[in-house]
Amino acid sequence: MIIGGDGYCGWATALHLSNKGYEVAIVDNLVRRLFDHQLGIDSLTPISSIQNRVRRWKSVTGKSIQLFIGDICDFEFLSEAFKSFEPDSAVHFGEQRSAPYSMIDRSRAVYTQHNNVIGTLNVLFAIKEFSQECHLVKLGTMGEYGTPNIDIEEGYITITHNGRTDTLPYPKQASSFYHLSKVHDSHNIAFTCKAWGIRATDLNQGVVYGVRTDETDMHEELCNRFDYDGVFGTALNRFCVQAVVGHPLTVYGKGGQTRGYLDIRDTVQCVELAIANPAKPGLGVQTISVPNPRVEAEEHYYNAKHTKLVELGLRPHLLSESLLDSLLNFAIKFKDRVDTAQIMPTVSWKKIGVKTRTVSV
Amino acid sequence: MIIGGDGYCGWATALHLSNKGYEVAIVDNLVRRLFDHQLGIDSLTPISSIQNRVRRWKSVTGKSIQLFIGDICDFEFLSEAFKSFEPDSAVHFGEQRSAPYSMIDRSRAVYTQHNNVIGTLNVLFAIKEFSQECHLVKLGTMGEYGTPNIDIEEGYITITHNGRTDTLPYPKQASSFYHLSKVHDSHNIAFTCKAWGIRATDLNQGVVYGVRTDETDMHEELCNRFDYDGVFGTALNRFCVQAVVGHPLTVYGKGGQTRGYLDIRDTVQCVELAIANPAKPGLGVQTISVPNPRVEAEEHYYNAKHTKLVELGLRPHLLSESLLDSLLNFAIKFKDRVDTAQIMPTVSWKKIGVKTRTVSV
């Protein structure tokens, strides 16, 4: 079950797993498409409706993907989806995922935490009630850790203090209401692993980039989205679009920040590896990570460990090999669709308003 | 402004500050009284309506307390209260505060996180919008830390790891949906201190006990509540009531757990000290603590530091001096009001249901 399977990471993952022979269902309320309408932005690449996407996938590959359209904050809907599909694994991408979006105004900050935290709570309760053996693969973020001045260990850290030692959750320093919502989720998930024996993998991934995966490449109607606006577009995407249309690259501050970037083909690999290697019941949540974060300091120490997925068999697509193939070529192809008014950042962490912003054209 | 000023800690604090010459307003939706009705429980001590309490306080002392009845999750209501009262300090007790309550069922788990996290977000936004200089004093809990095998430092811990050093938020290991909601709040508050320069004191207190304060003692209509039921009653309260009615003491497991307990007269002292010593703007959240937590292990290491409030002038009421005076005597006085059906614990962390429990009589 891919919760949020109509979104950027979710769609690529749904197709990848379906292609690998998994029986896949997508659960999504399509609200990501509504955000585009409300903010007056659009994917650079044209994206088809979820209904057409699924029909096209069937016609190209012969494989079916089930579709449950609804909101996971509605527990009655989620319950019916779980009872109907009986998932062995639930991959949870069904969250508001933009830090700038969460910093637009109070109602969007509250929406982000309400939607993400309550949605994840409902997924945990649904697993407990309907599908105890179901393995939860939850997308966290490296941004949960901030940029501490010590190495970022994978989920936990062993601390010796005043002559005693314990292994404790790695301290969190998130820096947006979005990132904080993921911290809250991670704590809630870890608790239900301990209290209920839920099996969960909290995948803290860096910034994901790229459009092309083997599956989305099969037909233009399977194409994934390419966000380049100031709210949902991430740095690499925006730099590529800016380069193509002759816009200056919008580096924040001195540009001295270090972040980890992840090819979307590695996101789908990571999820597949996580599904194939569920935590043993009752041993608590396992967190594995691939580098990245998002924070304020312009220059800082940054050293995050990422050995576990490599040990599990991850073969990474390095940025040097794939930037042109999977990103810049798309920017070139759809150059005429660029709306330059979307390029400059419009949300400020300091100036976040308390009143709901309305979009005037 | 005392948010949650009709509750146990809030009422004692409101009277104490009013008595000390502060201009006090209580903001409360009175939902704690509704929980009593819904669960079929009641305070051992008879408690008067908030309207009568405030009237009585005026007649006894000549001092006025303003009353704003409404829900802080309703931002429009909260905004009006802030604009009307213009607080210099906001003391925030306005949360669902029972761990067992949060573990009753899914809807109460979700209610607890929604109510506490969104309510606190709204308070932070209200301060930012209407009262930038207002100092937030927020009640956290020692239960945010769990029971790590190393000393619990006050809010932050300095970690040397692989030859590098940083001072980071102390790792959190909460063990109920209630305690987790406080962890979420602490993270959100710390973030707004950094991002907006909010001044906040996150008071992580242990289990509070006792009924009597100087002010509630002035008239029987000012009496504070005394919970002894399995949901809102804490251990000392329950033991006293059990001793009085000849009920066996209900020690959980081997009884080897260590917790810190705090006399309610010290809670009100701590809040007063916190108000008088606001954090300097822009220096980030300060956390000061008085010992206590709540967790699963029956025997464990427990060593929490609590020097800062003593440095600020706290004169603690030690348990050995005040148990009889402030707790057992009340249990004896109201012995006839004990409903023994309320005594045994009825909520299990393991057996938490997904369906809403209804109370049948």
UniProtKB/TrEMBL annotation, chains A, B:
Question: InterPro entries given for it?
Answer: Epimerase_deHydtase, NAD(P)-bd_dom_sf
Report domain NAD-dependent epimerase/dehydratase positions.
Answer: 2-280
Stated family: Belongs to the NAD(P)-dependent epimerase/dehydratase family.
Question: What protein name does the entry list?
Answer: NAD-dependent epimerase/dehydratase domain-containing protein
